Amino acid sequence: MISKVITGRSFYGCCRYICEDKSRAVVLDAEGVRDYDYRLMAHDFETQRGDLPGKKKAVFHGILSFYPGESLTDESLVTIAREYLEQIGMSDTQFVIAKHIDKKHLHMHIVANFVGNKRKAIRDSWIGWRGKKAAQALTEKYQLIPAERKVLALTNLESLNSEEATRYDIYHAIQDKLPHARCLSELADSLMKLGIDTQYKYKSGTKELQGISFKKGLYCIKGSKIDRKFSIAGLQKLIEENKQKQVQKRKIKRGIR
User: Fold this and answer.
1) CA nearest 43: which of 53, 29, 33, 52?
2) Is the N end or the C end of the chain the one with fewer CB atoms within 10 Å?
3) 191: closest CA among 208, 170, 205, 207?
4) Pairing outcome for strands 95-100 and 197-202
5) Nearest CA among 106, 94, 76 for reference residue 33
6) What is the average per-residue pLDDT within 15-35?
7) Closest to 70 in 3D by CA, of 27, 26, 98, 103
8) Any bridge partners for residue 96, and if so which?
9) Where are the alpha helices (DSSP H) in 8-90?
10) How many angstroms separate the Cα of 49 from the Cα of each of 63, 232, 256?
């Protein structure tokens, strides 16, 4: 079993990513949040985060991936996930556990709140390292196939986890910067400061934009693969809507004065 931990700012983006597509996502367990709708789930997480408004990165997103071909019951997955949370110190807080069934290997996502139930922040230092140590201990306890088995399938699995994390990072960055962008170039400039390169595809022999991709580290991902609304047409529409909202706000302000 392999653990990968991502910390973030947007519960909405994270809950949407892991729970929206019912064809691949199965919610196994939840505590303190509504588990039947990702919007309500995110709202519940955000409400508790409001107890500590200064805690910007309140999102814990853990990914536990199992060796290709390894099969566990839902009950076993929940037991492992709960023990994993306990071992890394993510106890007495909201969480949701979901498994994804769209890959050749079994894996599950755990979202939890760094703002605990008693309005205290949960320690997030070395959280990635703590997750790896917990995964190693649970692998041994439940006699799972260990990550040290460096075969091709496992190497590909680790790469998949990295790509998944990168896709999530890019999604969050666009969500964060898009409302402030008045054009695609402004969005691209904002993303570049976060280490994300924006790449355009033009219709052959013209300057007509046909597609958009985002590159971070080793991975270059089409906008539509990050989210359907982040296609070139979708982004242009969202930017135009943002501009219209800003115009309306300015008109309202002038009217008040």
Assistant:
1) 33
2) C
3) 170
4) unpaired
5) 94
6) 91
7) 103
8) 30, 111
9) 11-19, 38-49, 74-87
10) 21, 33, 33
User: pLDDT digits over 33-80, tens only?
Assistant: 999 999 999 999 999 999 999 898 999 999 999 988 888 999 999 999
The CB density around residue 45, as the number of other CB atoms within 10 Å, is 27
Tokens found for residue 67: 């060796």
Using CA atoms, how far apart are residues 142 and 145, in angstroms rounded to an integer? 9
Q: d(Cα 246, Cα 198) in Å, to the nearest integer?
A: 24
CA atoms within 13 A on the CB side of 85: 27
What values do phi and psi take at 133, rounded to 5?
-65, -40
Full-model pTM = 0.68
> Percent of the chain scored above 70 by pLDDT?
93
- CA-CA distance, 215 to 251, in Å (whole number)? 38
Whole-number pLDDT of residue 242: 87
CA distance 34 to 44: 7
Cα separation of 10 and 172, whole Å? 7
pLDDT at 157 exceeding the cut of 70? no
